[in-house]
Design goal:
The complex is a heterodimer of chains A (137) and B (443).
Chain A: E1 4-6, E2 14-17, E3 22-29, H1 34-53, E4 67-77, H2 79-94, E5 100-108, H3 112-124, E6 129-135
Parallel strand pairs in A: 3-4, 4-5, 5-6
Antiparallel strand pairs in A: 1-2, 2-3
Helix pairs in contact in A: 1-2
Chain B: H1 2-76, H2 83-100, H3 114-125, H4 136-139, H5 152-174, H6 180-206, H7 213-223, E1 226-229, H8 239-245, E2 254-257, E3 266-268, H9 274-279, E4 289-292, H10 295-299, H11 308-327, H12 337-341, H13 364-379, H14 391-403, H15 409-417, H16 420-428
Antiparallel strand pairs in B: 1-2, 3-4
Helix pairs in contact in B: 2-3, 2-13, 13-14
Classes of the chains: A alpha/beta (137), B mainly alpha (443).
């Protein structure tokens, strides 16, 4: 399995998905077509969890790490991005038994709406380990 | 069967739960999104207001700088007085009249937007900004022999005179036996000639009258009077002058002419960028030397007090203006500033300077600038070197310039028919200048 690196653009965040279990999504999220933009990311995570569920064959399938950390620092995002975040957390929610997943929601402490979005995730996914991490402006 | 139904019921209930949850989620997403959008909108509005404030502050700062530069030029020389301050007033009045007029060449001319108005205003404030580089002695040269002067020369002359006084005293004592009447008569004639010669030189120095060929010959003859120099003329000089004077014979005693053109009078032209000069399309002939302080050379200039070298130095102010303004990174809404400011010495027929442009090269605001510049200079009541001209004389001169195609006739007639000439003269001219003009004969 390959790592996935997507560079930031004016409208989209930088995405780094490392097979070691370190993930980060940072920047702005205003893609022209949000679901198209995030499709490779969704696919990458689905594959990650799928590989883990396969019977282990030496040299063919990777041993996927069980401790996963996702840092999300999204300064601005549109509503469809917000929807995609929920979809992503749904996928995590399905695999929370087999993996130790922590999600850090980083936000500017002055940005009230970013904090509220984080609180919504916690409310909807009470069994996921989502932490709010305020940052000083 | 019942188990199946139970299962179906459970499945259905789960799906319904999920659907309900999703609907709640969608609502939440929309509401949150709206809130974020508002937050971002507020944020953008704040930033925009900040940018607008900064833009305004920057504009104000820039305008103050421009006025400051214009003020500095006006303050530099009493010979230009309030020129840089008055030309914008006249130029803006003319531009307004040209905008309001919908006939002839003005049919398609409009100076409406704030940017367009500001562009011409800046150009007219800065039209002479190159004058900051013009040496004052040239701008203010009131007599032909005027320079920035090291007075060691004059003081040395006094030493010469005292030296002779001692010699004369000695001779007098020796010659006590001679016929006194004959000596007296000779001396009177010679002294009178000397007085007359000085009168001629002094009058020529003023440069008030055109000098005919025979006047120039007279100067050259007077110049040949001789005196004996006993003092070293190469000492007491600053480095730059010493470099030039060294070339002359500094030996003593030495026969000198009353007036002379010496090598040491010539200041070489150094570091002149001919390539840049040509690349910018400047076409004024460049004199070989920077300056020539030759006494005969200066005194025999036929018109005014300036030598061709000094005339060029004065005219260089416009090339400096253009260079300075073309160097500034004006934003696109002010890109015409160098064009409007740099053409006020051009004529309609390619006889002006520095680029020998013609009417087709000159947009209307540039032609307005030329008239504003000339009319202000003619009527300025604050120039020490000339009596201010009356309104009627100034308009007569403008009209003759129209006839020679030096300035634009349409703008000249607009200047008269719009009554701007009157508005301007009432505001800026002295009462004794502000006479009645019959403008109908010019329109």
């Amino acid at each position: 399995m390959e790592n996935l690196n997507i560079e930031a653009t004016k409208y989209t965040p930088e995405i780094i998905l490392h097979k070691s279990g370190k993930f980060s999504i940072k920047g702005k999220s205003y893609p022209e077509n949000t679901f198209e933009f995030y499709a490779p990311v969704t696919a990458w995570f689905k594959l990650y969890f799928l590989i883990d569920s396969l019977p282990k064959v030496h040299f063919v399938t990777d041993e996927m790490p069980k401790a996963l950390t996702l840092d999300m620092e999204i300064i601005y995002f549109n509503s469809s991005s917000s929807k995609w975040f929920f979809d992503l957390f749904d996928i995590f929610d399905e695999h929370k038994e087999s993996f130790d997943i922590s999600i850090n929601w980083l936000y500017d402490e002055d940005n009230e709406s970013a904090r509220e979005a984080g609180e919504d995730f916690i409310e909807d996914f009470e069994n996921l380990n989502i932490k709010l991490v305020p940052k000083q402006g | 069967m019942i188990v199946e139904l139970e299962n179906l019921k459970n499945e259905f209930s789960k799906t319904t739960d999920k659907l309900i949850k999703n609907i709640y989620r969608q609502d939440k997403i929309m509401l949150r999104s709206d809130k974020r959008q508002q937050y971002e909108y507020d944020h953008l509005q704040d930033r925009l207001a900040e940018v607008e404030k900064l833009e305004l502050a920057q504009e104000e700062l820039m305008d103050s700088f421009i006025v400051l530069i214009a003020g500095a030029i006006d303050a530099k020389s009493k010979y230009t007085g309030g020129h840089c301050e008055r030309v914008p007033e006249l130029a803006m009045m003319l531009a307004q009249a040209a905008t309001d007029c919908n006939e002839g060449i003005f049919a398609n001319f409009e100076l409406k937007t704030d940017d367009q108005i500001r562009e011409l205003k800046i150009a007219s404030w800065l039209h002479d900004c190159g004058k900051v580089t013009t040496p004052e002695y040239v701008v203010d040269k009131a007599t032909k022999l005027e320079t920035i002067y090291n007075r060691i020369h004059e003081i040395r002359t006094r030493f010469e005179v005292i030296y002779r006084d001692f010699q004369i005293k000695a001779l007098e004592r020796k010659l006590q036996g001679e016929n006194a009447a004959d000596v007296e008569s000779w001396l009177n004639i010679e002294l009178q000639k000397l007085q007359d010669d000085f009168q001629i030189i002094a009058k020529a120095n003023l440069g008030a009258e055109f000098m005919q060929k025979e006047d120039q010959e007279k100067i050259k003859i007077i110049a040949q009077r001789e005196w004996i120099r006993h003092f070293d003329c190469s000492i007491g000089l600053a480095f730059e002058e010493r470099q030039r004077v060294k070339k002359d014979n500094a030996q003593t005693p030495s026969v000198e002419y009353l007036l002379s053109d010496k090598k040491s009078h010539i200041q070489p032209r150094e570091d002149f960028d001919y390539e840049d000069y040509e690349a910018r399309g400047f076409k004024m002939p460049v004199p070989e030397h920077l300056y020539n302080f030759g006494e005969v050379y200066n005194l025999t200039q036929s018109r005014g007090t300036l030598t061709p070298e000094e005339r060029f130095k004065i005219n260089e102010h416009i090339t400096m203006t253009i260079k300075m303004l073309e160097t500034l990174p004006f934003p696109s809404n002010l890109k015409n500033v160098p064009i409007y400011a740099g053409m006020h010495h051009e004529t309609l027929i390619g006889t002006g300077y520095p680029r020998k442009l013609t009417i087709d090269d000159m947009p209307i605001p540039a032609r307005i600038m030329a008239i504003a510049d000339i009319f202000e200079a003619l009527t300025a009541p604050d120039r020490p070197y000339k009596e201010p001209k009356t309104l009627s004389d100034s308009i007569k001169i403008l009209n003759s310039m129209v006839e020679k195609q030096h300035i634009d006739g349409d703008i000249f007639r607009l200047f008269l028919s719009s009554g701007i000439y009157k508005k301007y003269s009432d505001k800026f001219l002295k009462p004794e200048q502000n006479d009645d003009v019959n403008v109908t004969k010019y329109i």
